[in-house]
Each structure stands twice: as C-alpha cells, then as structure tokens.
Amino acid sequence: SQTIHQWPATLVQPVGSPLSLECTVEGTSNPNLYWYRQAAGRGLQLLFYSVGIGQISSEVPQNLSASRPQDRQFILSSKKLLLSDSGFYLCAWRAEAQGWTEAFFGQGTRLTVV
Amino acid sequence: AQSVTQPDIHITVSEGASLELRCNYSYGATPYLFWYVQSPGQGLQLLLKYFSGDTLVQGIKGFEAEFKRSQSSFNLRKPSVHWSDAAEYFCAVGAYYGNKLVFGAGTILRVKS
C-alpha cells in the first residue's frame, strides 16, 4: 500500500534562517506531488505542485521554493525565513492515472518562525 | 483557473441534528469535486468524491454530497451529526485539464450536546 511521510512534525526557526521540509511517498511511481500551506481562516493555499522529477509549478510567488530531486521526494525550501512563513505545511500525493484520482495527505509540519 | 468558495467559516449544530455544509466552485469545464475532513493538527482525510455519473455521492462516516451543475455547488450533508464529527471540512476542485487541486477556506463544525 501507499504511504506518505512528512517531517519534521514541528519546527521552530528564527527569522532569516533557512528551511527544508521533506516529503516522501512509498508504494507508487510517478505520483503528482503537492505542497500546501494552511493559515488560520485562509484554508489550504496551494504553493507548488509537481508532475515529475524536476518539474515544479509555482502557484504563489513568495519566499519559498520547491524541488523534486527523485520521483517520490518533494522538498520545500527557503533561504531566509520570514515571520509570515509560519503556518501548517501539508504535503500530498495523487496517483498519475487517466483522469483524476483523489489526493492523500501527510500529517503536516507546524512551522513557527520567531 | 478553478476556485472554491465555502461561505460558512463556522457552523454549530446540536448533536443528532442534520447538517449541510455549502460549497460553490468556479470552473469552466467538468470539475472533479472532493470533500475532506481535518481533525486539529492532523492531515486531511477524504470523505467523498465526485467524478461523473450519479450526482448524489455517498462517502464515509454517513456523509453524502450532491453535485448541482446549474448552481455550481457540491454541498455536503449528514442526516444526524455525532459529537465526533466536530472538525474542519474542506471542499476541493480538480481541473479537468491539468493537475491543480484547489481547496476552499474550510468550514469549522462545532457540535453541541
């Protein structure tokens, strides 16, 4: 069966420090991968999605970047964190298939920038 | 580009009462529609989905949703709410062309005994 791992679960980082959040999927090949950020009252904001290695679509120009160095690995990064980067970050995967399939989510990372 | 509106930020219902959470989408082609539920500090769990066919879809935990193309709506319903249903609910739409999955702002459900 497929599983998604996201870490760390909680992170407290100072303003101006770098960030690296990792997400990996097991049990499937060539998944579509997504990064979302959840802030109070703003729902799930789509940040990036990827349909293959090295293919990244950015939805919101901001202080973050994403990379997909391997088929089932999706990394969210920042060179210098801002206070406004605080939030709950969720990674999701969706099977590549004819038509649509549902997305499955990781347990999330709570990032607090201080 | 697609978008989703969940007009109710908070809803409070009594245990045993019926529930309807509203979702309106904007998309020019055939949408793929989902409802997810999130418990505090957790990831999202799929409740149900609509891809095609019967416009009334059944999901887990006794939830159902009805797709109404004329109203661009996909409202979630449950005939009798249980205290354990208290959570945040998200409606989402996937684009027929492309791979974007866009969510609404969510509705927080509180259940009072």
What can you tell me about this protein's structure?
- The complex is a heterodimer of chains A (114) and B (113).
- By secondary structure, chain A is an all-beta fold.
- Chain A contains no helices and eleven strands.
- In chain A, strand 4 and strand 5 form a beta hairpin.
- The termini of chain A are far apart.
- The mean pLDDT of chain A is 92.
- Chain B has 113 residues and is an all-beta fold.
- In chain B, strand 7 and strand 8 form a beta hairpin.
- The radius of gyration of chain B is 13 Å and the shape is globular.
- Classes of the chains: A mainly beta (114), B mainly beta (113).
Write the layout of secondary structure elements.
The complex is a heterodimer of chains A (114) and B (113).
Chain A: E1 3-7, E2 10-13, E3 19-26, E4 32-38, E5 44-52, E6 55-58, E7 65-70, E8 73-78, E9 87-94, E10 103-105, E11 109-113
Parallel strand pairs in A: 2-11
Antiparallel strand pairs in A: 1-3, 3-8, 4-5, 4-9, 5-6, 7-8, 9-10, 9-11
Chain B: E1 3-5, E2 10-14, E3 19-21, E4 24-26, E5 32-38, E6 44-50, E7 56-58, E8 64-68, E9 73-78, E10 87-94, E11 101-103, E12 107-112
Descriptive labels:
heterodimer; A: 114 residues; mainly beta; seven-stranded mixed sheet; four-stranded antiparallel sheet; 11 strands; globular; B: 113 residues; six-stranded mixed sheet; 52% strand
